């Protein structure tokens, strides 16, 4: 339902912004566990979709790194610059150049640059973009076929567009995140959910969610038993409560095992063996206090997943670094592993 709705919305969005200087929404990408094919026990029931934004005519986006700490926690600012469109041909319409046409001409056409609408200073503002995007969805709703069979109610959210769809006894919640792609790669900076706790309205966190979704699709195309790896994830998420291991850590462990164990060995008759492979990999990671980030620095990443040049060959990020720093945390992790092993 969410995928079909976003296809309908995208067609309307393109028409809505075609003669404006607002960002241009691209084809939406479902992200998170719901679109990867599995559901963790603590799932909040929200279907999240990332909508890439391209700069409008006469504008360019440039990403500037804000935090130079751990790569997985980086945030960026999206700097907006005006570019000349005098030489650009627009069949059937005259495109005003924001750099070289007079303010009076622009005022007469009511053409305001993106810098004047959704930016704070020279940077794209997440909260202003969220309000604009929510209004775009609101105005587009009556133009999509789903409006005749679903009831839409918006939910307050400062860094995304969130709404509930209902039809009789059935309902689902959808959250539209928006982001800017890093070059031609599968890595984005995104608005992120409000609970991500980013205070600056011009801060856009880096996200690897699209690359992870592509990895799961890559695996599904080659898996002899298509959903076996997802069943492994489901089994462990059912027994994770109280063990101290998060579902995101488990997903990382399973993705690494999928890259190591040949996919021909993921048949139903080997289901239990694969569960023990996953447990064995976790034990190794806990003992050595190291769990590498799956995207950053991973030489086994499928070739179809594209990374920015700056990310190639980087040192893998250790997601268990806190275990190396804190002996008490390491002891607790070993005890949690033994508890999980018993379960």
Automatic annotation (TrEMBL):
Cited InterPro entries: ITPRIP-like, MAB21L/cGLR
One of the record's GO cellular component terms: membrane
Residue runs in coiled coils: none
SMART domains: Mab-21
Record-linked PANTHER family: CELL FATE DETERMINING PROTEIN MAB21-RELATED, INOSITOL 1,4,5-TRISPHOSPHATE RECEPTOR-INTERACTING PROTEIN-LIKE 1
Protein's recorded name: IPIL1 protein
Taxonomic source organism: Copsychus sechellarum
């Amino acid at each position: 339902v969410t995928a079909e709705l976003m296809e309908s919305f995208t067609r309307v969005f393109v028409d809505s912004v075609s003669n404006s200087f607002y960002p241009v929404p691209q084809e939406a990408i479902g992200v998170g566990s719901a679109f990867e094919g599995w559901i963790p026990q603590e799932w909040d029931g929200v279907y999240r979709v990332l909508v890439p934004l391209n700069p409008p005519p006469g504008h360019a986006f440039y990403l500037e790194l804000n935090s130079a700490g751990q790569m997985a926690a980086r945030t960026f600012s999206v700097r907006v610059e005006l570019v000349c469109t005098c030489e650009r041909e627009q069949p059937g319409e005259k495109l005003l150049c924001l750099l070289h046409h007079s303010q009076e001409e622009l005022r007469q056409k009511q053409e305001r640059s993106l810098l004047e609408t959704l930016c704070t200073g020279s940077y794209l503002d997440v909260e202003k973009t969220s309000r604009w995007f929510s209004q775009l969805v609101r105005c587009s709703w009556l133009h999509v076929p789903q409006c005749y069979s679903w009831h839409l109610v918006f939910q307050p959210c400062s860094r995304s567009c969130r709404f509930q769809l209902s039809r009789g006894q059935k309902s689902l919640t959808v959250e539209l995140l928006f982001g800017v792609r890093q070059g031609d790669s599968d890595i984005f900076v995104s608005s992120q959910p409000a609970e991500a706790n980013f205070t600056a309205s011009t801060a856009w966190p880096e996200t690897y969610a699209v690359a992870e979704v592509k990895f799961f699709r890559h695996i599904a195309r080659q898996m002899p038993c298509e959903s076996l790896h997802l069943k492994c994830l489901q089994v462990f998420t059912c027994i994770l409560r109280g063990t101290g291991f998060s579902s995101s850590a488990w997903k990382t462990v399973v993705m690494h095992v999928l890259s190591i164990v040949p996919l021909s060995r993921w048949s139903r008759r080997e289901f239990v063996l694969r569960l023990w492979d996953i447990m064995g990999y976790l034990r190794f990671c806990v003992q050595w206090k190291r769990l590498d980030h799956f995207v950053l620095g991973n030489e086994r990443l499928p070739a179809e997943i594209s990374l920015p040049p700056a990310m190639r060959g980087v040192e893998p990020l250790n997601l268990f670094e806190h275990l190396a720093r804190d002996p008490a945390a390491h002891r607790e992790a070993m005890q949690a592993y033994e508890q999980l092993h018993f379960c």
